[in-house]
Amino acid sequence: MNNKQNFYIFALFANFIFISIIFCGCSNDKTKITVTGLKYTEVIEGTGTSAFKGNTVIINYIGTLPGGKEFDNTYKTGIPLEFKVGSDVIIKGLNEGILGMKPGGKRKLIIPPDLGYGPEGSGAKIQGNTFLLFDVELLEVK
């Protein structure tokens, strides 16, 4: 293996350990793991119509990296994100993470690399094979 492969293996392992530590002893009946590896915790269950594939939704979110560094925040920009659930406009993990949410609901998501930006990462902010942490609030389902 070359140095780049060693780095990616180390980064993946470090992310796994960090995420394991975050949830060690913190699981409750509101924390779920999907078959794809997405982990989410229902913080507040909203009311009204649930978000499903094909719906247009409006969300606010804070995206952070393991270690707490924030990489995006719609609360700070004042511009919530509007998208069609299931579209490729956003990462797979965020699409999956809002399924079944209701307006006013809030979730914490831990998105594994293959549902995020994969081995490529995203620019200088997000390295390859990085877990992503999102605090998501569903504002509206259209």
Describe the secondary structure blueprint for this structure:
Elements: H1 3-23, E1 31-33, E2 39-44, E3 56-64, E4 70-73, H2 74-77, E5 81-84, H3 92-97, E6 106-111, E7 132-141
What is the helix/strand order? HEEEEHEHEE
Radius of gyration: 15 Å
**Share in β-strands:** 25-35%
How many helices does DSSP assign? 3
- Amino- and carboxy-terminal Cα gap: 49 Å
- Helix/strand-derived category reads alpha+beta
Helix content: 10-25%
Could you please describe the fold and organization of this structure?
- By secondary structure, this protein is of the alpha+beta class.
- The protein contains three helices and seven strands.
- It has helices at residues 3-23, 74-77, 92-97; strands at 31-33, 39-44, 56-64, 70-73, 81-84, 106-111, 132-141.
- Strands 1, 2, 3, 4, 5, 6 and 7 form a seven-stranded antiparallel β-sheet that branches.
- Strand 1 (31-33) and strand 2 form a beta hairpin.
- The longest helix is centred in the first third of the chain and has 21 residues, at 3-23.
- It is globular.
- The model is unreliable at 21-26 (pLDDT under 50).
Which features characterize this protein?
7-stranded antiparallel beta sheet; globular; 142 residues; single chain
Would you kindly provide a brief summary of this structure?
The protein contains three helices and seven strands; from the N terminus they run H-E-E-E-E-H-E-H-E-E. It has 142 residues and is of the alpha+beta class. Strands 1, 2, 3, 4, 5, 6 and 7 form a seven-stranded antiparallel β-sheet that branches.
